[in-house]
Amino acid sequence: MYNNILIESLDSFGRGIAHINGKVIFVKNALPEEIVDIKILINKKRYSEAIVLKYIKLSPKRVKSICPYFNKCGGCHLLYYNYLDSIDFKYNKVKDLFIKNKINVKNIDVVANTNYLEYRNKISLKIINKKIGFYKDSTHELVEIDKCLIANSSINKVIKCYKLLNINNGELIIRVNSNNEILLIIKSSNNNYNIEIEKLKKEIKLVGIVYNNKVIYGNDFYYERINNKLFKISYDSFFQVNPYITSKLFNLVSDNIDQDSTVLDLYSGVGTLGIIASTKAKYVYSVEIVKNAVLNGNKNALLNKVNNIKFFLGDVSKIVNKLNVEFNTLIIDPPRCGLDKETIKFIKDKLC
Ligand SMILES: C[S@@+](CC[C@H](N)C(=O)[O-])C[C@H]1O[C@@H](n2cnc3c(N)ncnc32)[C@H](O)[C@@H]1O
After folding, report:
1. For residue range 300-350, what is the model confidence (pLDDT) as tens digits?
2. What letter would DSSP give residue 56?
3. Is residue 238 a contact partner of residue 265, using CB atoms and an 8 Å limit?
4. Of 50, 54, 59, 171, whose CA is between 20 and 30 Å from 296?
5. Of all atoms in ligand 1, which is nearest to the CA of residue 267?
């Protein structure tokens, strides 16, 4: 145990950073300027990971987390940080990354959520021995829940009646649109199911159930309308999880597309940003790796009466050099792992 340790800053995962004898210590659930007693859990050559045993001095930016599962479930990491201060933290992280990589961006605007609760339109839950919840951080230990405060209220209705699914063990993904229509995606090692669909339909607006990649009720897709654009979304296609921020993102894309530009939209999902760009651009080329998302993209172009967009199916890193298309505007919205070396080189060669 180490006493009276000063937390100096936060790392990108939201862990407090402290130093003991020059060695970096990452401390969970600790904010800058706090003084804490800690216990080291993991001791590596270059750094250690620790937990707080006692708070000696609390940060004025600390708030009491309203979630009963906070610090138990592996979900939200910064719920103990005042929302506006947590945005400030993220803003500085982005700014520092730009500076570190010598990218000259004049203004970084932050779009805050109007409500930082009940916004998520998708969550993935585990069911173990008939109990439902999330995994505890970095473990396969279930933290049983009866609601998730950041999920749309219709998702919480499903959690309330999940026993109607009669699943002993597996994964349940719940997706919902702004009309509260629900698509359930279930993965289980047991191929036999016994879902009480009629009872479920009395509780929620069910549009489909996909069980081990097979549709067993309704459809394997749903629709979402954002900024007057309609999108078909298959069960395995990506869609932005926060509809309010998605609407703002669409406006941002639209505001930054010049008339007559030619756009390359990498990691295009169901074609959202490309379709928004297409309303101003001369032409849009979109690249996406998930087949259903590309099919959705083509359908979404039709639904939104867009005829100046072309979708390519494939891995960006492998096909981007073979596309042979001229563009002067780039949209990149990669998955969490970020851009790979080949794609970074392609972008640098083309645009720098
Ligand atoms: C963060 S999402 C963005 C989607 C879209 N821009 C939107 O806003 O809805 C990232 C997308 O990249 C796709 N993806 C992941 N790895 C890829 C790769 N190597 N090549 C092409 N697409 C990829 C995912 O399937 C997902 O649709």
Report:
1. 999 999 999 999 999 999 999 999 899 999 999 999 999 999 999 999 888
2. E
3. no
4. 171
5. 12
> Which helix H or strand E contains 296, and what residues bound it?
helix 291-303
Assigned fold of 122-219 = OB fold (Dihydrolipoamide Acetyltransferase, E2P) (2.40.50)
On the question of a common fold for 1-110 and 122-219, the answer reads yes
Contact indicator for 231, 239 with CB cutoff of 8 Å: yes
> 340 CB less than 6 Å from ligand 1?
no
Q: Rounded to whole angstroms, how far apart are CA atoms 57 and 139?
A: 30
Q: What is the pLDDT of residues 51-70, one digit of tens each?
A: 999 999 999 999 998 899 98
297 lines ligand 1 (CB under 6 A): no
The domain spans of the chain are: 1-110, 122-219, 246-351
CA distance 82 to 99: 26
CATH class of residue range 246-351: alpha beta
Q: Report the relative pairing of strands 9-10 and 16-20 from DSSP bridges.
A: antiparallel
* Mutate which of 289, 296, 343 for ligand 1 pocket (most atoms within 8 A of beta carbon): 289
